Amino acid sequence: MHLVFIFLSLTFVLCQTLPSRNVYTNHWAVRITGGREEADKLASKYGYINLGQIGSLEDHYHFHHSKVVKRSAFSTRGTHTFIHMDPKVDWVQQQVVKARVKRYTRNDLNFVHFNDPKWSSMWYIHCGDKSSRCRSEMNILAAWQRGYTGKNVVVTILDDGIERNHPDLAQNYDQLASYDVNGNDHDPTPRYDSSNENRHGTRCAGEVAAVANNSHCIVGIAYNARIGGIRMLDGDVTDVVEAKSLGIRPDYIDIYSASWGPDDDGKTVDGPGPLAKQAFEQGIKKGRKGLGSIFVWASGNGGRQGDHCSCDGYTNSIYTISVSSTTENGNKPWYLEVCSSTLATTYSSGEFYDRKIVTTDLRQRCTDGHTGTSVSAPMVAGVIALALEANPLITWRDVQHLLVKTSRPAHLKANDWKTNAAGHRVSHLYGFGLVDADAMVVEAKKWRSVPVQHTCTRISDRRTRYIRPDQYLNASISTTGCTEDADQRVLYLEHVVVRVLIVHPRRGDLQINLISPSGTRSQLLAKRLFDNSNEGFRNWEFMTVHCWGEKAEGQWTLEIFDSPSQQRNPEVLGKLKEWTLILHGTAEHPYHSHSSHHSRSRMLEIPSPGREPKVHEPQQIPEEEEEEEEYNGPCHTECGDQGCDGPDADHCLNCIHFSLGSLKTGRTCVSHCPLGYYEDPEARRCRRCWRGCETCVGRASNECLSCRRGLYLHSDQSSCVDTCPAGCFAEDVQRQCLKCHENCMMCVRDSDRCTACNEGYSLAGMTCVPQCADGTFFNLEEMKCITCHHSCATCTGPGNEECIQCARDFLQQEWKCVPACTEGYYPGEAVGLPQKMCRKCEENCLSCQGPGVTCTRCREGYNLVSRTCIANATCNNADEVFCEMVKSNRLCEKKLFRQFCCRTCLMTG
């Protein structure tokens, strides 16, 4: 026992006294004269990647070798170590890990403290507290500790005004970022009343930029940002009001935050009008001096009404950042709307017992009762302000990319979290997850703008498809991502928009999904119990971000399901008239340009375990080595008749089969050449293929037999390409470009799945068929042109509901061609059509002569008065003297008087 104790003690002493072993990395410092280009050549020659100059040290470069172990107790061996023998290399050193410690005593973020009385109540900033129920930080404190507080960033709140003299806002208030659209002046102060109805904007403003350390109320997320307000909700909100509000000083204001939208009643489908749409487009094109205005939008509070934010055209826009909410515990709030356009999430209120948000309030007060997604939009606006301080040059799309990259699922509870084909975790409740302010500023600081945005549009064939109850209707569009047009080419996706034209007896019964070529399913619309509208969707645009980063090419499927409610006749079928796929994204990978280096073709490395490499140290004089004894042992089986100077394959003086490598890098003998090389039997050498080839017969780019990962073999040209040219489709199993059918100009997945046709042919589904003369259509079953219905001038099928254009003397009425308008309709002009179409008369008219007040006959129970139908039940005559005055002053032409004095008005005809 005593001996064991002594042994352990000695072992402990030795461990304490012996120096710790070095940990070698796969990084080298190299000194090379001749500049960056020469360093790149040498790096490529020996299988390294040049990561660039080391700081400000001229001629010193940082090399990295991806095929060497990241951390090792021994310096590495292999052909790459021959770099130290190259005459152009002055000095080389493999890097060793150095132990370093930070010289401060506190690493707890919670030591940040302000004297604002509500500071400790701002639970959503203090998730690290042991008493807090929110388990995941938005990391606002960490961003502050990096020095980012929103300086020089301008945010404005589109709402009912802000209280500019509030003690927590006055110091950061910016008059140039403010305007009263309702009152047409420059003062956005809210209108005060006993109910304090117009408090919303002031509450949102405090979340963004409430002043810190002023002993009043709270601290804003960007507490040094400039804050303004656009008063536009306290009055009639029109397209002009919205457009004016969205376009105020776009070169001065960086971020517009809006926590409002159409009614969250579960039945409204509404969005920006044409002027507001133009204002959005102008903002992203010209705002911030061309970098693009940033529009942040609350996703909606209609959860209890079963609303779906895809029916809100503001949150559904590619130009806005739609923000969702979660409770302190990471649960779904009762008010939350679900949709595929949501980008990110912040904390907000939940049930009555959950804590709410503390912020500024009207009359220079504070409140701890701010709730809903109204909270989340200004919170994200504040986080974006921190990111803009870190990098003022990021664009409106860069901001969206940053949110996608840095937001995280954390502990947010949802059953639909999924990972898309690009590796992003995403949910219909929370988008890409909880915002992370610290990750945003760190990523923004080093960010390089993403490539230019391209848009690729594909329209389905205009065949009417019936939507049958309790059945799925699947409609597909195949696309190459517009690879044939350089200005529209989309390889990597951002936003995907689906525009639909649907006729349906009860809109709320519909559910719509979109499935990407990678299999990602986006729920574009859920069933809405309160939506009884029979208007359907007239070119409504749904948007999803769930395919972000995925490849655009392939087959997209629109899936529609009709679950009829008891409130409608299930025999009345809905119809999908047309749908359009609009792909927004980039022609190149958005993040490849962010690396400080590009991947290069690397020389194959053959390890040499039997030899110790030499490592040069700066100004180190090498010791004289003793002359080695001549090797007399057995040679490797691949060595030739000239023998060897060691036992391994790289010790051979010549080879039986092939040699791989060069004199400088070291040669080794192999029985056959590896991938990326071809065999030269005359020279008995393995020679490198063109960089895209995996196997080849020569060095040229048109001598490939198979391709490296991610490329396709164009068989006709024996070359490797990243996308197949027009006239070919990408066959993914063998990774080849195969020819389309002879009638196809373009096709996908198969030779006869055409997406565009050669001259003289037209597309029928995904088949190119001969173009038929007007009045006929091509029948795929009989493979010939067949006459259209007699009412059609052109058509897609035999029925009168499949007309594209009506025949002469026929009119279009509700998707079919008729010889004359039926009761309740009149023939009217149609913009863009040569023939007239039947338009509906005014309500309660049996027949009319045109639009407006032109009735000639009324429905039962109505009287014709001044060419308008008035209900009999409203005929309640007023005082005789009053009615005579109405009659003598021709006031019967006014609807109000017609109903009040209808008998008098009837006497006038």
What does this structure look like?
This protein has 909 residues and is α+β, with helices and mostly antiparallel strands. The protein has 12 helices and 51 strands. It has a 7-stranded parallel beta sheet with strand order 7-8-6-9-10-11-12, sandwiched between helices. Helix 4 (200-209) runs parallel beside helix 7 (373-390), helix 5 (239-246) runs parallel beside helix 6 (274-286) and helix 7 (373-390) packs parallel to helix 9 (437-445). The radius of gyration is 36 Å and the shape is flat. The model is unreliable at 3-20, 100-110 and 593-628 (pLDDT under 50). This is Proprotein convertase subtilisin/kexin type 6. Residues 592-601 have a biased composition (Basic residues). The active site is at residues 159, 200, 374. Belongs to the peptidase S8 family.
What is the strand and helix layout of this fold?
Blueprint: H1 2-17, E1 24-32, H2 35-45, E2 49-53, E3 60-64, E4 71-72, E5 89-96, H3 140-145, E6 154-159, E7 179-180, H4 200-209, E8 226-231, H5 239-246, E9 255-258, H6 274-286, E10 294-298, E11 320-326, E12 344-347, E13 357-361, E14 365-370, H7 373-390, H8 396-406, E15 418-419, E16 425-426, H9 437-445, E17 454-459, E18 465-467, E19 472-479, E20 492-503, E21 510-515, E22 521-525, E23 537-544, E24 554-562, E25 574-586, E26 658-662, E27 666-670, E28 677-680, E29 685-688, E30 693-696, E31 704-707, E32 712-714, E33 719-721, E34 728-731, E35 736-739, E36 744-747, E37 754-757, E38 761-764, E39 767-770, E40 776-779, E41 784-787, E42 792-795, E43 803-806, E44 811-813, E45 816-818, E46 825-828, E47 837-840, E48 845-848, E49 855-858, E50 862-865, E51 868-871, H10 880-888, H11 895-900, H12 902-907
Parallel strand pairs: 6-8, 6-9, 7-8, 9-10, 10-11, 11-12, 32-35
Antiparallel strand pairs: 1-3, 1-4, 1-5, 2-3, 13-14, 15-16, 17-25, 18-25, 19-24, 20-23, 20-25, 21-22, 21-24, 26-27, 28-29, 30-31, 32-33, 34-35, 36-37, 38-39, 40-41, 42-43, 44-45, 46-47, 48-49, 50-51
Helix pairs in contact: 4-7, 5-6, 7-9, 8-9
